[in-house]
Amino acid sequence: MSKKVIQFMDTSFRDGFQSVFGARVLTDDFMPAVKATVEAGITNIEAGGGARFQSLFFYCGESAFDMMDRFRREVGPNVALQTLARGINVVALSQCPRDIIDLHAKMFKKHGMTTIRNFDALNDVRNLEYSGERIAAHGLNHQVVVSMMELPPGCSGAHTPEFYMDRLKQILDAGIPFHSICFKDASGTSNPRKVYETLKGARKIVPEGTILWFHTHDTAGLGISQNMAAIEGGADGVDLAKSPVSGGTCQPDILSMMHAMKGTDYTLDLDYEKVLKAMDAFEEAMKDYFFPPEAKMVSPLVTLSPMPGGALTANTMMMRDTGTLHHYPAVIKEMSEVVARGGFGTSVTPVSQFYFQQAYLNVTQGKWKKINPQYGNMVLGYFGRTPVPPDPEIVKIASEQLGKPVFTDNPLDILEPGIPKATKVLQDNNLPVNDENIFIIASCEQKGLDFLLGKAVTNIRKISDKPAEKKAADKKAAAPAPAPMGPRSYTITVNNRPYNVVVAEGGAIQAAPAAAAPAPAPAKAEAGGPTTSVDAPTPGNIVKVLVEVGAIVAKDQPLVVMEAMKMESEVKAPCAGKILEIHVSNGETVQASDPLFTIG
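and the corresponding structure tokens:
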């Protein structure tokens, strides 16, 4: 009996980059590996979307549209190129209005993509209807998604085979056009039996000939067994990757999957020697990139606190930047409660970031003392319906802290058109008004504007990029020895804190915190009234300060854009008043509760 040939998509150059490098990879570095992949006979490749859209503008100083064009030229006209979209968020981390959702599909078709995989983290089918319709309308294949994960211990009411069948029936009943259906487990936590039952049940529901796909990550060490369960349940295709990004937080390896299929009724129909050549080319291309150790590890705890592979390294790399990586184990543990009380939205971008940020606040600020705005908006219904109602106590806390009521209508109906707003930004900055630039502004906001203005800052972690102090040490070692000197004293600043450093004649060094310089006297509050401190809600980086000292601001007016744990968000004025002091500047790193502004 002939074996069933299982289709697969090579995710190395999109999900692999996101899951291992936080999506920060330069196009010139990996294109030779793309060529070798096609030469190995691989004809379905993930080429962009998801975090690999914004990251090109945010960290790589490149256009994602140019990258997609390079992909198409490299692979030729016949290779399928797929991207990832987040329902009404498309490739942004915030919701997009209808005109931007339409423009997303139009632009990705123009720039050579074949298929868009389209998911909603809440499994709210309303969030898939319009986005799916526009993907199909622009001539792309629409792969509609049911999002999966395992619930924390003691939780029930969603994320069972029956729950997924209900969502699948809703998709079919809604008449959403699709080319294939994917069951996506971004955290790699669904137990294999559940995967089998889900795919088996789906095969009975869908029309004959429907292509069923399964996607997972190997973070918990379950990837191969999940894939085999999906295939035995009726899946036609799975996602796989190549070394050095395969396994761990990414997808299972192609060669490992071929090995697991030996002696079964299934095959990938590949020449392993050609795959080895492609793997060698890819490892050569990535040899200068820093691999976070957690990206290659099995993390059993995620089965209890689902953290998707694509977000895990983005979070840990951000925590490295902010000096808070020591909190990571406690945050992962706390995620269990945050998921359990938040309505069971699937732990995949952007909801996984809401979970992580809220868990971080619970660890560092005290349980539920501070509600992350995005997590709060989710439990209040502003992103759509969660699979089950969130904990009423958390809803009440969120409503009080955010000053917002519960929302039950369609999220798309409260979003203003995005094209006019983006057009005005381009015009105000004397930039060309075209579809690409409009979409860049709409989806990437301030960092998109910085890119178009030539102000993008590249932040790629490579081994050869030595820290400044190491370069200085190398330079000093190569220079002639200086003449002996007497004791010297200096003041240096580390993480915004001054230190007095004394170097004795023999080279001994003593350092002590410096006395704080007297702060300039703040402007007096109007009529001698009280002042209000606006503090950082999470650790992160200051993207852009939006006000000046002396400005009169209204309650809820945005004051600063912060980037924290893969997401940008605005910090808003808690009250009306006058900006008396600004304590931060663009590009600065802050910790949770650091003062940002003083309002009087």
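(Above: one complete record from the training split.) The two ends are 80 Å apart (CA to CA).
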